[in-house]
Every structure is written in structure tokens, then in C-alpha cells.
UniProtKB/TrEMBL annotation:
Segments annotated as WD repeats: 383-424
InterPro entries (alphabetical): WD40/YVTN_repeat-like_dom_sf, WD40_repeat_CS, WD40_repeat_dom_sf, WD40_rpt
Name the UniProt record assigns to this protein: Uncharacterized protein
This protein's GO CC annotations: transferase complex
């Protein structure tokens, strides 16, 4: 629509985008000799026809993509149907976990209340000075007559009864816990009202953007340059916000700009790096995380961790760094203060992680995705749908969408807030090993044999490039760094996305 040719009153033409943002009356953007009334110009039949033709073309392309989506889903109806039920199954699982947590929390609350009562009772009893007279039979004098003997015996029995009552009272106080009971709910308690019921609801499908452009003819990836680094053992790399490239091999970190090596920094026992901002990057080393300046290599801060090796090192929002060690232990640090914010360990192996909208943390554990809230207080949400191990995760936008790649060769687009899978991108022929987000609703991914560019909005692949074993890094300027292995030798290439 923005590129539609609009005819001006003077006879010249310009594009729709040059007119739509103008005020109601504006100077002609071409000849500058007259003023144009925007509404009258756009209402000219020739211009109306041009816009209608473009609108019809856009709607046709949308319809065509919907038909392709239908055909793709129809190829495996059983799996499509199974996937459509994954959201409600996830919600049932989450409800169960929420109720289990509430029950456990209340269970421990009651136990704590009992312990407090027990301690208070014990403290009260210890303050009492309880003395028990020695017990013994009270002999009756043989010199008494029968009447007096009976009287003395009655008095003795009365004394024994009083003593027994006193001892029973003391014993009851010592065993006061037996007097407490757990009250139960009414007999008409219904689990379905408590847990919830399954109901069918008709939902109106809405597009995320009313004027979303579906013309992908000008969207493409192209090679910008190749880097002859001479490095055969590249262990990790990062693309900075201003298009510099950090590469580390063995105990050295190299800074490249415009295909030339600008700096070389020594860094012993490092295995992961991540870019923090335009000035700083983090490097995970044996026993510590080093925060260093990009251009000079000088250390900004050293964070002692005692970790031997890092599997993942990422920069989060609010000055935080997250690292994964031993594939099970998550640690989150404030890189400015060097303080540990939180640390926890999962029972099973974590293969990928990322930060979502609102500071939520997503973890790939086997074939599921676990969503943990920022303060770690609530029951994690669980996303299920992949049939094999999830290998990569990528937060997509501020609406809470998430992309996941898997050994099952599929890419899934999730709405983590509603715990539902929105789309499944099918096309890869081997394990998806890398996912990165591009601007304007596009996604780039790689498997063993190729790199693919996807339109997420319509769930279609719009470009394929044959590249063997590519690892991808992307920056905000739409530059893409690839580490790939042609002829059994690691190479670096820079792609541009337009």
C-alpha cells in the first residue's frame, strides 16, 4: 500500500506513503507549485482504483497463504487435532499444579500452627511448679471400732479420688494435643466445582495487525561479506549492536570490524560470551564471569562464581546476567554490583533458556517448556507439544509470544500467557539448532543443512539458503552473523536482511 502510485492534481505521481502522513492541505511534494487537499486527492477515482487493486492483491495473497496453511494442516489431521488440544491439556496440568501448591502451602501452614501451639503450651507448663505427694496406703488403726474404720475408709477413698482427678487433669494437660481436631468441609463438596470443568467456547480469530503487509517480494537475506579469520576452533561468537563481531578461540578473544581484526584479548579458560551493551561484554571463565570493555578489553568487573564451565550465558533486562552450569543450575547476577540475585537447580537437563515479557524465564527441559515467574513464587506454566527435545528458544515480542525449535524438526510459536501454541512452522528436515528474531515479524532459523527465513504472521518460509551447520547471531540493525562449516572448516559470514 505504501508504494502505490498516487496521481497528483498537477499530473505527477508519488507514492501513497508520501501523502498519507501529510496534513489535510499540503504543498505538492513533487512540483511545489500548488497545494493539495489530501482527502480530495485520494478520492479521485483513478487513485481509489489503484488503492483498491492493491488492497485486492493483498487480500488475495492472504487468502492464498491461508489456503497453503489449510493444505499443510490437512496433511496430518491427527497431529493437527492433537496440537489443538495441547492448550487445554496444559491448562488442566497447570490447574492441578496450582491446587497442589495451594494444598501444600496450607498443609505446611497448619503444621506450623500446630508447632507454635505445642511450643507455647510447653513453655506455659514449664512455668508451673507441679509437686505430686508420695503415694502410699493409709493404714487404719486396729483399735478403732467398725463404725470409725468405715468412716476413715470413706475419707481415704475421697482423698484418693481427688488425687486421681488431679493427676488425670495434669495428664490431660500434658496430652493436650489430643484435644485438637481437623474440621472437614461439608459432605456435598464437589471436586469439579473446585477444579473446574471443560466447556466448548467459540473464539473469534483476530489478526495481530489490521494492515499487515503480506508482500514479501522485497524481503530477503543476502551475503554482505565473508570473514577470513583463519580460526579453526571457534567456540563462541557475538554480534554487537554496532556491527562489531566478537569471536573467541582457545584462550583468545578477537574483535572484528569491517572484516578486519581490530583487537585481540587474552582470556584463559573462557567458554561463553555475551554482549551486554555497546560498551561491555561478558565472558564466562572457569570460576568467574568477567565483564569487559568491548573496544579495550579492560575488565569492568569480575564476578566470582566457582563454576567450572558455563553452558549458557545471556544478558537479561534490569542489569542482570543469567548463566547455566552443569546443564541444571541457573544463576542470575547483577553485573553492575556483582551480587547473586537467585540460584536454583532443576532435576533434569536444561537445553535452552530465554527471558520473556515481564521478566518471565522460559526453560527448555526435554520436550517441554517451563515458564517461571520473575519472583519464583507461583507454579511454573508448562508448554507441551513438541515430540522430542526442545533445542532452542527465542522471545519474539512484547505480546508474550515465544518461538521454540526442536529435534522433531518443527518450530512452534507460543502465546505463553494463554499457554497455547499459535502456529507450527514446518519445513526443516533435521533438528532445529538455532533461532533468532528479526524485525517486522520475521524469524531466522537453521538446521544441519540450511538457513530459513520465516514470516511468523502467516507461518510460511519465504527464503532458504543452503548453509551447512550454521550457528546464528543477530543484532538490532538486522545484521546476521553465521558460523558455518564448509569443507570441514569453520567460517564466518555476515548476512543482511532487508
Amino acid at each position: 500500500m505504501n508504494d502505490d502510485k498516487i496521481t497528483l492534481p498537477c499530473g505527477y505521481t508519488t507514492t501513497y506513503q508520501n501523502i498519507i502522513n501529510q496534513p489535510d492541505n499540503f504543498e505538492c511534494v513533487v512540483c511545489k507549485d500548488h497545494f493539495v487537499n489530501k482527502q480530495e486527492c485520494l478520492s479521485v477515482k483513478r487513485n481509489v482504483l489503484v488503492m483498491k487493486q492493491q488492497e485486492a492483491m493483498n487480500e488475495y495473497i492472504k487468502l492464498k497463504m491461508l489456503k497453503e496453511d489449510f493444505d499443510r494442516l490437512s496433511l496430518d489431521r491427527e497431529n493437527t487435532l492433537k496440537e489443538s488440544f495441547s492448550s487445554i491439556k496444559n491448562k488442566v496440568d497447570l490447574r492441578r499444579e496450582e491446587l497442589k501448591k495451594k494444598i501444600d502451602d496450607y498443609y505446611f501452614h497448619i503444621l506450623n500452627e500446630i508447632e507454635n501451639i505445642q511450643k507455647e503450651t510447653f513453655a506455659t507448663q514449664m512455668k508451673k511448679d507441679i509437686k505430686i505427694e508420695n503415694l502410699g496406703l493409709n493404714p487404719i488403726s486396729l483399735n478403732l471400732d467398725q463404725k470409725d474404720k468405715i468412716k476413715r475408709m470413706d475419707e481415704y477413698l475421697s482423698d484418693l479420688d481427688k488425687r486421681s482427678q488431679n493427676l488425670n487433669k495434669l495428664i490431660s494437660e500434658l496430652k493436650i494435643g489430643e484435644n485438637y481436631e481437623l474440621t472437614k468441609p461439608n459432605d456435598d463438596f464437589k471436586i469439579d466445582d473446585f477444579f473446574g470443568k471443560i466447556e466448548f467456547q467459540i473464539r473469534e480469530e483476530k489478526l495481530d495487525e489490521k494492515s499487515f503487509s503480506v508482500d514479501n517480494s522485497n524481503i530477503k537475506l543476502f551475503f554482505d561479506k565473508s570473514l577470513e579469520t583463519g580460526l579453526n576452533s571457534i567456540r563462541d561468537f557475538e554480534l554487537t549492536f554496532d556491527n562489531k563481531l566478537l569471536i573467541f578461540e582457545h584462550d583468545s578473544i578477537y574483535l572484528y570490524k569491517d572484516s578486519e581484526c581490530q583487537r585481540k584479548y587474552f582470556s584463559e579458560n573462557n567458554n561463553k560470551i555475551c554482549v551486554i551493551n555497546n560498551e561491555l561484554f561478558a565472558v564466562g571463565c572457569k570460576g568467574y564471569i568477567g565483564i569487559r570493555e568491548i573496544y579495550s578489553g579492560n575488565f569492568y568487573k569480575i564476578i566470582e562464581t566457582n563454576e567450572k564451565c558455563f553452558n549458557i550465558l545471556k544478558c537479561l533486562s534490569k542489569d542482570k546476567l543469567i548463566c547455566l552450569s552443569d546443564y541444571t543450575t541457573i544463576s542470575i547476577w547483577n553485573y553492575k554490583t556483582g551480587k547473586l540475585i537467585v540460584q536454583f537447580t532443576e532435576e533434569k537437563t536444561i537445553s535452552a533458556l530465554d527471558e520473556l515479557l515481564g521478566g518471565y524465564l522460559c526453560l527448555a527441559i526435554e520436550s517441554i517448556i517451563k515458564i517461571i515467574d520473575p519472583d519464583f513464587s507461583n507454579v511454573p506454566k508448562i508448554l507441551t507439544g513438541h515430540t522430542r527435545k526442545v533445542t532452542c528458544l527465542k522471545s519474539l515480542n512484547a505480546k508474550g509470544n515465544l518461538a521454540s525449535g526442536s529435534e522433531d524438526t518443527n518450530i512452534k510459536i507460543w502465546d505463553f500467557q494463554s499457554i497455547s501454541c499459535k502456529k507450527t512452522l514446518i519445513g526443516h528436515t533435521s533438528m532445529v539448532n538455532c533461532l533468532e528474531k528479526l524485525k517486522n515479524g520475521f524469524l531466522i532459523s537453521s538446521d544441519r543443512f540450511e538457513v530459513r527465513l520465516w514470516n511468523i504472521h502467516f507461518g510460511v518460509c519465504i527464503q532458504r539458503i543452503s548453509i551447512y551447520k550454521a550457528t546464528i547471531r543477530v543484532n538490532s540493525e538486522n545484521y546476521i552473523a553465521l558460523c558455518h562449516i564448509p569443507n570441514n572448516q569453520k567460517c564466518m559470514s555476515i548476512l543482511k536482511y532487508e
